[in-house]
Amino acid sequence: MAAVLRRGIKFISFGSSQVFSGGCKHGKTSTLSSFSSSNRNSSSSSKIKVDLDSSTGIAVMKFQNPPVNSMNLEFLTEFSIGLEKLELDKSCRGVILTSAQPKIFSAGLDILDMYGKTPEHYEEFWRAVQDMWLKLYGYSKITIAAINGSSPAGGCLVSMASDYRIMADNPRYRIGLNETQLGIVAPFWFKDTMVNTVGHRTTELSLQFGLMYSPSDALKIGLVDQLVPEENILSTATETMTKWLDIPDHAREISKSMLRKPTVDRLLASRDADIKNFVSFIAKDSIQKSLGLYLTMLKQRKV
Ligand SMILES: CCCCC/C=C\C/C=C\CCC/C=C/C(=O)SCCNC(=O)CCNC(=O)[C@H](O)C(C)(C)COP(=O)(O)OP(=O)(O)OC[C@H]1O[C@@H](n2cnc3c(N)ncnc32)[C@H](O)[C@@H]1OP(=O)(O)O
């Protein structure tokens, strides 16, 4: 399915950035295309539900990949295409990202996509991770993460790549880049995203220890911007979005680009090398062994 979706993607250029344009031949992608014909448009691909209210300009993308919204190849592809469709839709001005799964925003990248697969698979998977981050971090429209559950590693990356983060104030939830706990390493652009969010020193400690933060600690270090009672998360995200929408789009967009483009350009300048790095790193016996152990611990509920 993911391969079919990928064949439907056409690359177009915006300045120095390569972005997606959804091709609509495949049934699944074409369901994402009709956002602007009435005030409220809903579309549900298999892994992400998109709901755009064109009277307010606010879209909600709800992750629905049970049990834990892990980001596999198919999810990543749908996410990138969904974002691209909304970016091209003039009636959309801002996107709220949230989860349909109870207690989990996203468990991060799907570990099974990094374990026991072929180099060709790792390459395709990593390109899809890069595509998703490039799209989201360099997104022209406003993005708000409504983090209604735990958000480790890739889930934290998605949150940090958004413009504003609101987290449910539940002391059981955790957020952070925990890669080292799995025996793997967050790549430079995950690290850059975190440095840009919480600063260099906090990132040094966070990444080396693979720290996962409670909502209150995440707020203290600036990893999230606001905590709210869980039941208010979507209404708060919508109210917050309305305030962001008061700012003229072009001025906000240029300001965002000024701050984020150098970070985006760093990966754009070295995408192939980064993929090569990932493939050779992840395929190492020692790394596969670490991931295998982590998966076993997850299954035994010891993580
Ligand atoms: C020169 C050097 C260069 C180095 C750099 C080069 C390249 C970089 C290399 C690598 C970079 C990789 C970057 C990786 C990013 C990631 O995102 S890795 C994923 C990290 N995620 C986690 O650690 C989360 C693990 N999961 C949990 O902590 C919990 O599952 C939970 C999300 C808190 C939910 O808890 P709970 O509700 O109790 O659910 P369960 O634990 O019971 O889980 C349900 C089932 O889901 C499976 N699962 C959970 N997470 C994942 C996942 N991320 N991927 C795949 N599967 C997952 C879990 O095993 C359960 O399955 P079963 O029901 O037992 O079958």
TrEMBL record:
Name of one Pfam family that matches: ECH_1
GO terms, molecular function: delta(3)-delta(2)-enoyl-CoA isomerase activity
Signal peptide: none
EC number: 5.3.3.8
Cited CDD domains: crotonase-like (cd06558)
Family to which this protein belongs: Belongs to the enoyl-CoA hydratase/isomerase family.
Protein purpose: Key enzyme of fatty acid beta-oxidation. Able to isomerize both 3-cis (3Z) and 3-trans (3E) double bonds into the 2-trans (2E) form in a range of enoyl-CoA species, with a preference for (3Z)-enoyl-CoAs over (3E)-enoyl-CoAs. The catalytic efficiency of this enzyme is not affected by the fatty acyl chain length.
Protein name listed in UniProt: Enoyl-CoA delta isomerase 1, mitochondrial
Organism annotation: Ameiurus melas (Black bullhead)
